[in-house]
Design goal:
The structure is a single chain. By secondary structure, the protein is mainly α. It has 5 helices and no strands.
């Protein structure tokens, strides 16, 4: 598997797991804590995923977020769509879940568009001596 395929898989796993974890956490809400809001009962796996998955981007972010080729970032789009589907599968859908769905949709659409635009502007910019 090439670097582009690895970038797609890393983007898919990071965005998919984060979408799943955020949707589960938003659905559960805040749990009781001495300082106001904590991880609710049953939210341990969601919290663990939210804390560990971004570390994949620390080590493999250059394979996902590339402006020379925007296609590996489609993994982020696919993972965000999976998170949206998981969020919509929760019944009943609380109003705060709609905010998460809009944010995930913005990431799904925006990430490839921004990388495509940056790569296109870099290729069309005249060389400076």
């Amino acid at each position: 598997m090439g670097k582009k395929g690895l970038g797609f898989l890393v983007g898919l796993s990071v965005a998919g797991m984060l979408g799943w974890a955020l949707a589960g956490s938003v659905y559960l809400g805040c749990g009781p804590s001495r300082r106001g809001c904590g991880v609710p009962d049953g939210g341990g796996w969601y919290f663990a995923a939210m804390m560990t998955m971004p570390w994949l981007l620390v080590f493999y972010g250059d394979t996902v977020l590339r402006d020379d080729d925007w296609r590996p970032s489609l993994g982020i789009s696919a993972g965000a769509v999976a998170g949206i589907v998981f969020a919509l599968s929760k019944e009943p859908i609380p109003p705060r879940m709609w905010i998460l769905i809009v944010v995930l949709a913005a990431f799904a659409i925006g990430t490839p568009l921004v990388l495509w635009h940056r790569g296109r502007s870099r290729r069309t910019r005249p060389a400076q001596n």
